Amino acid sequence: MTATPIPRTLALSLYGDLDVSILDELPPGRTPIVTRRVPGERSAEVWEFVRKQVAQGRQAYIVYPVIEGAKDDQPELDFSHDESAASVEDPAPPKKSTRKGKTPGLFSNAASPSESPASKSKTAELKSAVEMHEKLRTGPLSGLRLGLLHGRLDADDKEVIMRRFQRGEIDVLVATTVIEVGVDVPNATVMVVEHAERFGLAQLHQLRGRVGRGASKSYCILITGDRVSPLAEERLNAMVRTQDGFELAELDLTMRGPGEFFGTRQAGLPDFRVANLLRDRELLELAKREAERFAGASDEKGREAETTETERARVWAHLKEAWQRRYGLVEAG
């Protein structure tokens, strides 16, 4: 069971030997989450908004991609690493605003700027959870009760911090993606993700799901760095545009591919000679039904199968020989 748009799971659900049940409604009493994208230079407005939410008795999460600075960088989280070359060679010119007067608020009806300036020759240093916890505690969020949670803490310490947050003893929890699953605090109404361009679509969708779990209106704020690659732009725009996990899953499948069915690769295009999982959806579903009919002793209407046991055994033997090592993973256990 998953509430996350994981391409591998989606592809196996559509075309593998799985039964699928779809829950496409919010639980009773929950309201949609307002999502906005904000450039880094407007972070002061974000911290002021967090203060206002805490003053109303709410709580907030602030998520960073790493624990302790650039030396602690995690390549698996850096979706922008392979995408940055094109944007560095040919940076898009910054968009000029045609609006005059006061800058619109974070959650006003007017759209927030979709891009931060791309003219800077050097990207800003990556912010970390440990560093920003201290800076926020003594700076923009001074006076609030801040907690710090990351994967290097002992299990007991992590449990104590989460219990304190659940009891309302911590106003703002600064964390890494350790909180992306298994956290349920209905009073938390704000999720701030810094360096949002570095996260994958599935991670962003999971993090947003940590708020909006109560009846109060909730917000997700995606703060971006100086350079955002075209693929990151697409991910961020999708997050702002929709909360539909199925739509995000389709986009994630298109962008990353489902990985291997009989293997260990979690993303990328499968080794089909002709077929395309998205373009040939109806044809592949028909092929799946035909394969099920061939493999079963009877069809879905209870009629005896047209193939004999000997014919099926020959097919299985050929498949094992053709797929060799990768097919062996299916039989493991």
Question: Would you count the extended β strands for me?
Answer: 6
| H/I helix tally | 10
Overall body shape? elongated
Uncertain ranges: 73-77, 84-103, 109-124
What is the alpha-carbon Rg in Å?
24 Å
| Alpha-beta content class | alpha/beta
Mean pLDDT across all amino acids: 77
What portion of the residues fall into strands of 2 or more residues?
5-15%
Largest sheet at a glance? Answer: 6 strands, parallel
Q: Name the helix and strand elements from N-terminus to C-terminus, one letter apiece.
A: HEHEHHEHEEHEHHHH
What does this structure look like?
There is one protein chain. Mean pLDDT is 77; it is low at 73-77, 84-103 and 109-124. The chain has 10 helices and 6 strands; from the N terminus they run αβαβααβαββαβαααα. It is an alpha/beta fold and 333 residues long. Helix 5 (155-166) links the parallel strand 3 and strand 4. Helices cover 36% and strands 10% of the residues. It has a 6-stranded parallel β-sheet with strand order 1-6-5-2-4-3, with helices on both faces. The two termini are 21 Å apart. It is elongated and about 75 Å long.
Q: What's the quick description here?
A:
The chain is of the alpha/beta class. It is built from 10 helices and 6 strands, in the order H-E-H-E-H-H-E-H-E-E-H-E-H-H-H-H.
What key attributes describe this structure?
single chain, 333 residues, alpha/beta, elongated, 10 helices
SSE diagram, text form:
Blueprint: H1 7-15, E1 33-39, H2 43-55, E2 59-63, H3 84-89, H4 129-138, E3 146-149, H5 155-166, E4 172-175, E5 188-194, H6 201-208, E6 218-224, H7 230-241, H8 245-256, H9 281-295, H10 309-331
Parallel strand pairs: 1-6, 2-4, 2-5, 3-4, 5-6
Helix pairs in contact: 1-8, 7-8
